[in-house]
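lol ok so funny story. i was supposed to be doing the assay writeup but got distracted and ended up predicting the structure for this chain instead. priorities right. anyway since i did it might as well share w the group, maybe its usefull for someone
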Amino acid sequence: MAGQIIDGKAIAGKKREELKQAVEELKAKGITPGLAVILVGDDPASQTYVRNKQRACKEVGIYSLLLKYEENITEEFLLARIKELNENKEIHGILVQLPLPNQINPKVVIEAIHPDKDVDGFHPLNVGKLLTGEDTFVPCTPLGIIELLKEIHIDLTGKHAVVIGRSNIVGKPMGQLLLGENATVTYCHSKTVDLPSITRQADVLVSAIGQANRITADYVKEGAVVIDVGMNRNEEGKLCGDVLYDEVKNKASYITPVPGGVGPMTITMLLANTVKAAMKYTAK
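and the output, tada:
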């Protein structure tokens, strides 16, 4: 029997309706949540992501400011713009679209964003708070995955969760969030020996390995919940995940498709973090 599909698009739509209501309540208090997005250069994928973010902001009533700069700008110029946004009371969230040109150090840029406006959850202070279990801004993709698991009523307490990937954007924070939900967490990565022998132990398997169709049925325990973070292109140029969906769906209890699974939740959590930042501002 095929696993149930986790419809990220529908769950994201439900969450956005809740955010609309929260935005209306903030506006009634005289606060319009504001998100500034900085885009450097003409990377087509980045331009698409930014357009989608702007469209989503408009949908829920968030003020969206796009600052677009040529690829040859200096790091000093960009840091000066971030400083202005840090001081702008109409802007509650700041996002710098990655990747950045080679002359700009992304680490320096991320650390320049005020932690209270770091809606991507990448600032070292917010990363530290996540590690110590404090309330903070969390990277949007892993936060969205936790929302998906809650929506389908998966109790993570005592479950063995395996995360494939150790990036600062997905893998590392994903494991911390799962620990916070009382799961037992194992990290795997490109250097892991005999990966399938470990992933087959997982009650919940989160793959962010970035390799098209790498995770076959041989990697999955019968009845596992499978979350596919991958956004890859196969040999035909078609969008696909890390998980060989048609094969694994017959073994999993729940599974996210690509597209339409994790993806819609990522931008929705960016909106949620922006609303959260605006609420923190009103509480000051």
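The first helix runs from residue 8 to 28. The mean pLDDT is 96.
back to the writeup now i swear
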